[in-house]
Amino acid sequence: MSVKKITTNTLLKMKANGEKISMLTAYDFSFARLFDDAGIDILLVGDSASNVMAGNETTLPITLEQMIYHAQCVVKGVERSFVVVDLPFGSYQSNSEIALASAIKIMKETGAHAIKLEGGEEVAESIKRIVSAGIPVMGHLGLTPQSINKFGSYVVRAKEDAEAEKLKRDSVILEQAGCFGIVLEKIPAILAKEVTENINIPTIGIGAGKYCDGQVLVMHDMLGINSEFKPRFIRQYLNLEKLIKEAASQYIADVKSSDFPNEQESY
Ligand code: KIV
């Protein structure tokens, strides 16, 4: 049976019909396949791969080539979900020509369906150029981790009027530039509500409250792979850290005691 694939039109219709959009990050084939089977609407090959896959403190070091590798792996695991790939830091900020070249490289080499980039008015020209080339673009406002050195910390953004007003203006600019959706990260729920009601494209929240059109979480956070990282916006659905450590300890014990492999596990 053929699967009905999610497209940007599906996502726009979901907003119009009040149907919430589910989004998770994925960085490899195996998890992408599981999340796709489970019915996730959007898979984000996030530059959070820099943190959770490569062990870097920030998202800044990950390269375009490394993002392409992760995206290629994810795309192979997907039948139905819409795959969005982050443009990494340094691959689009210089000018719109470089931004377009990076977006084209991702689309050509991965088979993903869209790209995401961070920022408002300052990246509008790049968004227009990428959209004109036929590439769907998702925006990202609020806490934009590629600007962590400017912010100085990962605290909630846009609590003050001036920043909230800029964020509202930016959301309209991103919609007008042609974005099909916007991630709103770590902003007050009431501001996310205002933005969501004011634009026709879906908002996907992470730490932005319940009024967004959809929600996204980093897979490692919601699966409980790193129990040290627990900001209040994360809902942990599994304690995979505990389960994996228990399984690994049992395996080690079985090997050490010569319990593994047994007769049935041997040829
Ligand atoms: O890179 C990422 O995982 C993201 C999400 C936090 C939205 O951009």
Identify the notable features of this structure and list them briefly.
alpha/beta; 42% helix; TIM Barrel; single chain; 11 helices; 267 residues; binds 3-methyl-2-oxobutanoic acid; 8 strands
Q: Would you give an account of this structure?
A:
The chain is an alpha/beta fold. The protein has two domains: 229 residues, Phosphoenolpyruvate-binding domains (TIM Barrel), CATH 3.20.20; 28 residues. The protein is 42% helix and 13% strand. An eight-stranded parallel β-barrel has the order 1-2-3-4-5-6-7-8, surrounded by seven helices. Helix 9 links the parallel strand 6 and strand 7. The chain is globular. The two termini are 38 Å apart. The mean pLDDT is 97. The site of 3-methyl-2-oxobutanoic acid has 11 residues, from strand 6.
Give the neighbour order of strands across the main sheet.
1-2-3-4-5-6-7-8
CA gyration radius, whole angstroms: 20 Å
Class computed from helices, strands and strand pairing: alpha/beta
CATH class of the largest domain: Alpha Beta
Count of DSSP H/I helices: 11
CATH superfamily of the largest domain: Phosphoenolpyruvate-binding domains
In short:
The protein is an alpha/beta fold. It has 11 helices and 8 strands.
List the helices and strands and how they pair.
Layout: H1 8-16, E1 21-25, H2 29-38, E2 42-45, H3 49-52, H4 64-76, E3 82-86, H5 96-110, E4 114-116, H6 124-132, E5 137-142, H7 148-151, H8 161-177, E6 181-185, H9 189-198, E7 203-206, E8 214-217, H10 219-222, H11 240-256
Parallel strand pairs: 1-2, 1-8, 2-3, 3-4, 4-5, 5-6, 6-7, 7-8
Helix pairs in contact: 2-4, 4-5, 5-6, 8-9
